[in-house]
Amino acid sequence: MGSEKLIAALGEWPSFHDAEVVLFSVERALPVKVGYNIARLVIHLRRYASTGEGTANYQMVLAKSVLAKFVFSLACNLELFDFNHQNVIDSFTVSPIQTDELANLSVNIESIWGFGGSFHCSAVELESVEVLPIV
């Protein structure tokens, strides 16, 4: 839900390769079910769009920069690691899984450097997309 916001900002749905995780937070859900960890997980991903050109110093020429706020409902089975000063990811995937639980989506964040991991959730919402200045 909300994918049209990112498509409008970038002109297409991105691959998330080389995106950066700049913030993540976990908030426990209430009421708490004994023996079952349920949370609301928020991840902010910064994604660039390039012109397909490079500079003499082998840097990309950037055309756009956006910050996408993803909210994951009923997040559980969290296995997250290595949040640091950059947190570049290779991929960000959401896949349906067969389960009797409400958390029937599997999320995988493949790390290049820093933050990565996996978890299950019941829903994913792209809550907001903010266009950032290119720096």
Strand content: over 45%
Q: Give the topology string: H per helix, E per strand.
A: HEEEEEEE
Residue-averaged pLDDT: 84
Largest sheet: 7 strands, antiparallel
Number of helices: 1
The structural domain count equals 1
Radius of gyration using CA atoms only? 16 Å
Total strand segments: 7
Indicate the percent of residues in helices.
under 10%
Low-confidence stretches: none
* Alpha-carbon distance between the two ends: 29 Å
Shape: globular
Broad structural category = mainly beta
Describe this structure in words.
The chain has 135 residues and is mainly beta. The protein has one helix and seven strands. It has one helix at 3-10; strands at 20-28, 39-54, 60-81, 88-96, 105-113, 116-121, 123-131. Strands 1, 2, 3, 4, 5, 6 and 7 form a seven-stranded antiparallel sheet that branches. It is globular, with a radius of gyration of 16 Å. The relative contact order is 0.25. The model has no long low-confidence stretch (mean pLDDT 84).
Secondary structure layout plus pairing:
Blueprint: H1 3-10, E1 20-28, E2 39-54, E3 60-81, E4 88-96, E5 105-113, E6 116-121, E7 123-131
Antiparallel strand pairs: 1-2, 2-3, 3-6, 3-7, 4-5, 5-6
Please name the defining characteristics of this protein:
135 residues, single chain, 1 helix, mainly beta, globular, seven-stranded antiparallel beta sheet, 7 strands
